TrEMBL record:
It comes from the Bacteria. Residues 6-57 form the RNA-binding protein KhpB N-terminal domain. The lineage of its organism: Bacteria, Bacillati, Bacillota, Bacilli, Bacillales. This is RNA-binding protein KhpB N-terminal domain-containing protein. SMART domains: Jag_N. InterPro entries: FapA, FapA_b_solenoid, FapA_N, Jag_N_dom_sf, KhpB_N.
Length: 683
C-alpha cells in the first residue's frame, strides 16, 4: 500500500520536515511534490502557506492512481492559527477492501510509548490539575500525538498558596477569618496499556500547607484588634484543610439595663356592666357603670427601681456604654401621700382614684365621692362638689348639680341644671333639663397650648429683665421699691406684645368656665390677671415672683397634658324638652322627644327620636326617627360621619356636612353618608 501525506507550513522545507516526522521515514525513502510554493498574499498583504505532498516509495507495490479512493484527515499541530501551520494526511489504499491498522499510546515504567503504524494517530488528554508538555509546549486539551513526540509530565511539586482575610463587623464586636486552605501537589505517572484515546493516568500526592498563625496575629494587630482574641479559634482556622469562616475575636456588647416601672393596686378604668333583668321582666338600666374606688390607707402604686446596664468593650478595647435608664417619679395630688423612699403612693382618704402617666412621671390623686340620699330639692340646696357625686333620688325643678368629676343620679331630673366634668348616668327621665358633660375637659384642651406659650414667653421675659438689670441706666432701687409693674407695662406693650395677647386669651377662657374651675385654677387666674394685666396694685414684685409664676404655669400645663384617664359620656334614659351637651358619647336608651342633643362622640338611641335637633361628631345610630304626622326632626353629623336609622318617618331631615335631604315618605334601614365627590348618598 502506498502512503502519502499532504502538509502545509510557512515554507516548503518546514512542511516536508513535518511530513517526514509524521510518516517516521527518512528523506531518501520518499518522493516530494511541491503543490504550492507559498509566499506573500494578494497585494503584499499576509502570507500564503506552502503545500507539499510526500509519498513513501514502495518498490513492491503497484503504482496506484492518486485520484482513486483518496481521503484527507486533518491533524492539528501545536502552532496557533497565527503560526499558520496546518497538517493534512492523505492515504491512498491499495484496494477498497484493505483494513486499516490501529495506533495507540501507553505508559511503561513512567515513560510514554507511541505507536502509529496505521492511518490514525492516537489522542492524548492531560490529567486534571497536572501539567503535561509535548515537545516542550504545555498541552491544554485533547491533542493527537505521533511517534517521535516527546511527552513529559511535570513532577516538580506545585504550590497552591492559601488565601485568607479578616472581616470586622460595623459594631466592631466580631472579627471573622475567611479561609481557603493551600496545598502542595505532586503528580506521578501510572503505567497503562496502549490506548487510542488516553486520559493520562496519574497518582497525586497532596501536602497541606497551614497558615502561619503569626501572620494572622500580625494582621489583627494592624487592624487594632486587642480585645476578645480567641487563640484556639485562630489555631483551628489556620490548620483547617476545608474552606470556612471562623470567629477569631469577639467583643463584649453592653448589657442593657431596664427603666423603672410601676404597678397599680386599684382598677384604673371605669367598668361598663350589662343591664340587669328585674323579677317582673323589665330591664334595670341604672346599674350599668361601676366607678373605681379606693379606701383610706390603701397603697395605690408601687414603683420598681431602674436597673442600670453593664458596659461592654469592642475589639479595639473601647468601652461601650449601655443606654441611660430612668426611674419612675411619683407625684402626689389631692388625697395622696408619697412614702419617704418615694416608691409608694398611699391614699389618705377614700374616694375615686385618678392617675396620669406621662413619660417617667405618675401623678396620683383621690377625688372624694359625695353620696346624697334622697332628692336634690330646696331642702338640700344645690350641690357643687369637687369630686364625684351620687344621688339616690332625683333632681327637682330649678336645682343645680355641679361636679368636677362624674355624676350618678338614680331618680328623674326635672327643669334642673346638671354639669359634670366627666360623665353623667341618669337612671330616670330628663324633662326640661339643661345638661352639660365634659366642658371642663374642653377647657383644658383650650388652655393647654396657652399655658405652654405663657411659660415659654415668661422665661424670655425673665431673661430680658435680668439683662436690663445689668445696664447702667436701669435703676434697680426703683424696682425694689415699686415692683415690676411699670417695667412689665412697657415690655408687654413693646417687645412682648405676643405674651400680652396670650395672657388675655387665657383670662377670657377662665372667665367663661369659672363655674368649672377649682381653687387652684382660680388662684392662678387671679395671679395672672393682677400680676400682668391689671397693674394698679404694682404687679409682680420681683424676678423671683416671676420665676415662681413660670414654674406654676408649667405645673398646671403638665396636669392637663397627656391622655385623659377617664371617659367622657352620658348614659340617659328618656330625654324630653331638654338641652344636652356632651364632650363624648351619648346614649338615650328609650329615645327623646323635642330635645336638642349635641355630642362630640357618637349618639345612640335605643328608642325613637321625635322632634328636635340631634348632632353627633362621630355619627348617629337610631332605631326610629320622626313621627307619622311629619313632626320636624333633624339629624346632623360632620362630613366624615354617617347616619344609620332602622326606620325614618316622612318629614325627617338628615344633614351631613353642608348636604341635606328631607324624606317625603317613610323609609327603612337608612344609611346616609357623603360620596367621594361630596354628594349625599342614601341607601
Amino acid at each position: 500500500m502506498e502512503r502519502s501525506i499532504i502538509t502545509r507550513a510557512k515554507t516548503a522545507e518546514l512542511a516536508v520536515e513535518e511530513a517526514l516526522k509524521l510518516l517516521a521515514v527518512s528523506r531518501e525513502s520518499v518522493q516530494i511534490e511541491i503543490l504550492e510554493p507559498g509566499g506573500r498574499g494578494v497585494l503584499g498583504l499576509g502570507t500564503r502557506l506552502a503545500v507539499v505532498k510526500v509519498t513513501v516509495i514502495d518498490s513492491g507495490s503497484a503504482s496506484a492512481s492518486q485520484s482513486a479512493g483518496s481521503r484527507e484527515i486533518a491533524v492539528p499541530t501545536a502552532e496557533t492559527v497565527h503560526e499558520n501551520t496546518e497538517t493534512q494526511i492523505e492515504t491512498i489504499p491499495a484496494s477498497n477492501h484493505a483494513s486499516e491498522e490501529q495506533g495507540g499510546i501507553g505508559i511503561h515504567n513512567g515513560r510514554f510509548h507511541i505507536q502509529a503504524t496505521g492511518t490514525r494517530l492516537p489522542l492524548l488528554t492531560p490529567p486534571p490539575g497536572a501539567v503535561l508538555y509535548r515537545n516542550g509546549t504545555q498541552v491544554d486539551g485533547k491533542v493527537s500525538v505521533a511517534p517521535g513526540d516527546e511527552l513529559e509530565l511535570e513532577t516538580a511539586p506545585k504550590v497552591e498558596a492559601s488565601i485568607w482575610r479578616i472581616e470586622i463587623d460595623e459594631a466592631c464586636l466580631r472579627a471573622e477569618l475567611h479561609v481557603r486552605p493551600g496545598f502542595e501537589r505532586q503528580f506521578t505517572l501510572l503505567d497503562c496499556k496502549p490506548q487510542e484515546n488516553l486520559v493520562v493516568p496519574v497518582s497525586e500526592r497532596r501536602t497541606f500547607l497551614p497558615i502561619p498563625q503569626a501572620e494572622v496575629a500580625g494582621r489583627l494587630k494592624e487592624l487594632g484588634v486587642i480585645y476578645g482574641i480567641r487563640a484556639e479559634a485562630i489555631k483551628q482556622a489556620c490548620n483547617s484543610e476545608e474552606p470556612g469562616v471562623f470567629l477569631i475575636a469577639e467583643g463584649s456588647p453592653a448589657v442593657e439595663g431596664a427603666n423603672g416601672t410601676f404597678s397599680t393596686n386599684f382598677e384604673t378604668e371605669t367598668k361598663r356592666l350589662s343591664p340587669q333583668s328585674r323579677e317582673d321582666g323589665t330591664i334595670d338600666y341604672r346599674e350599668i357603670v361601676e366607678f373605681p374606688t379606693v379606701i383610706e390607707g390603701q397603697v395605690l402604686v408601687r414603683t420598681l427601681p431602674a436597673r442600670p446596664g453593664r458596659p461592654g468593650r469592642d475589639l479595639l478595647n473601647r468601652p461601650i456604654q449601655p443606654r441611660v435608664v430612668q426611674s419612675m417619679e411619683l407625684a402626689a395630688g389631692e388625697g395622696v401621700s408619697i412614702t419617704e423612699d418615694g416608691r409608694r403612693a398611699v391614699a389618705i382618704r377614700s374616694g375615686m382614684p385618678r392617675m396620669k402617666h406621662q413619660g417617667f412621671r405618675v401623678h396620683l390623686s383621690v377625688l372624694p365621692k359625695l353620696s346624697h340620699r334622697g332628692d336634690v330639692d330646696l331642702k338640700s340646696g344645690n350641690i357643687r362638689f369637687r369630686g364625684d357625686v351620687e344621688i339616690s333620688g332625683g333632681v327637682q325643678n330649678g336645682m343645680n348639680v355641679e361636679a368636677i368629676g362624674s355624676i350618678n343620679i338614680r331618680g328623674p331630673i326635672g327643669s334642673a341644671t346638671i354639669e359634670a366634668a366627666y360623665s353623667l348616668i341618669a337612671s330616670g327621665n330628663l324633662i326640661g333639663a339643661h345638661v352639660s358633660v365634659g366642658k371642663r375637659s374642653e377647657f383644658f384642651n383650650q388652655v393647654e397650648p396657652l399655658l405652654l406659650e405663657i411659660a415659654s414667653q415668661t422665661q424670655l421675659l425673665q431673661s430680658a429683665i435680668e439683662q436690663l438689670g445689668q445696664t447702667a441706666a436701669f435703676k434697680l432701687n426703683d424696682i425694689q421699691q415699686t415692683g415690676l409693674g411699670a417695667l412689665l407695662s412697657v415690655l408687654l406693650r413693646g417687645k412682648f406684645k405676643a405674651l400680652h395677647v396670650v395672657l388675655t386669651r387665657f383670662t377670657e377662657q377662665a372667665a367663661k368656665n369659672e363655674a368649672q374651675l377649682d381653687v387652684d385654677w382660680k388662684d392662678y387666674a387671679q395671679r395672672l390677671k393682677y400680676g400682668f394685666l391689671d397693674l394698679r396694685q404694682g404687679g409682680l414684685r420681683d424676678s423671683a415672683e416671676l420665676d415662681a409664676f413660670r414654674r406654676r404655669t408649667l405645673e398646671l400645663a403638665e396636669s392637663v397634658s397627656g391622655p385623659e384617664d377617664r371617659l367622657i359620656f352620658a348614659e340617659l334614659q328618656y330625654v324630653q324638652n331638654s338641652h344636652v351637651y356632651c364632650g363624648g358619647n351619648v346614649r338615650a336608651a328609650k329615645g327623646a322627644y323635642n330635645a336638642m342633643i349635641y355630642c362630640q362622640g357618637e349618639l345612640e338611641a335605643g328608642g325613637t327620636l321625635r322632634g328636635g335637633v340631634y348632632f353627633a361628631g362621630r355619627g348617629i345610630a337610631v332605631k326610629e326617627v320622626g313621627a307619622p304626622g311629619g313632626v320636624a326632626t333633624k339629624l346632623q353629623v360632620p362630613e366624615t360621619a354617617v347616619i344609620r336609622a332602622t326606620r325614618v318617618m316622612e318629614g325627617t331631615v338628615v344633614q351631613i356636612g353642608h348636604r341635606s335631604f328631607q324624606f317625603v315618605e317613610a323609609a327603612s334601614n337608612v344609611h346616609a353618608r357623603l360620596g367621594s365627590s361630596g354628594e349625599l348618598l342614601l341607601f
